Amino acid sequence: MPRHLSEAQRARAIAKLEENWSLSEVAAELNVSKSCIFYIKKRWQGEQRLQRTIRQGIGKVSTENEDNALVAFINHNLFETAVKAREETLFPGSLRTTQMRLKQCGFKNCVAAHKMFLTEEHKQRRVQFANEFLQGNEFWNNVMFSDEKTFQSSKNERLHVYRSKNTRFEDNYTLNTTNSGRFSVNVWAWISVHDPGVCWQIDGRLTSAHYTNILENNNNGSL
C-alpha cells in the first residue's frame, strides 16, 4: 500500500467519487485506506485542492547559548546526570531532549570504568610481553591464569559518565576504587587452556603467603 497518492491518483479518486463510487470502492481501486480517500474528498470539497498540506516541523526548543550552557555544565561535571544538568542550566527542553542534545554534541552516557593503577613502565612491559609471545602457542599451553575477587557487603552502584568515543580509560572519565569497612569474602581461582580450574575461598586478606600455600600444598591436585 503506497504511503501517499500522486496528484494524478488523487484526481482519479475525485473522478470516481463524482461517478458515485463509495469511499470503500475507491480505496480498493487505488489500494489505499478508506480514511485516505475520505481526506482527499474533504480537501476537494472544502478547498477545491488536490495537493497535500505540507506540515511544518516543530522548531528547536533551545537556543545555541542554551545548548552551550548545557555542554559546559557536563564538561565540568562529567559524572552528573542529564536530570541535574537540565535543572542547573535551566534547559528549556524535556529530559529526553536534554539527552538527545548531549548525544548530538558527542557525549555518550556510559558506565564509568574504574581507574587502572598502571605506571608507564607497567604498560610498556605488558605490551612488550604480549608482543614477545604473540604466536607462542607452546608457551601458552603451559600458562595458568589466576585472579582474585573480593565480594563486599557494601553498596557499590554503577556510576555513569558522559564522555566521547574511545575515552573509556582516560583519567577524567574513570573512578578510583575505594575500600569498604563492612565484611567481605575473598576468593581466588585459576583457569588454563586444559582445564576450567577451581575456586578457593580465602580466609583473611589475600596475601602472597596464601598464594604460595595454594600452589605448594595443592591438596586436591587441580593444579
TrEMBL record:
Stored InterPro entries: Homeodomain-like_sf, RNaseH_sf, Transposase_Tc1-like, WH-like_DNA-bd_sf
Entry's localization field: Nucleus
Molecular function per GO: DNA binding
Pfam families: HTH_23, HTH_Tnp_Tc3_2
Chain ranges of the Transposase Tc1-like domain: 94-134
Main location: nucleus
Cellular component aspect of the GO annotation: nucleus
Name by which UniProt lists this protein: Transposase Tc1-like domain-containing protein
One of the protein's GO biological processes: DNA integration
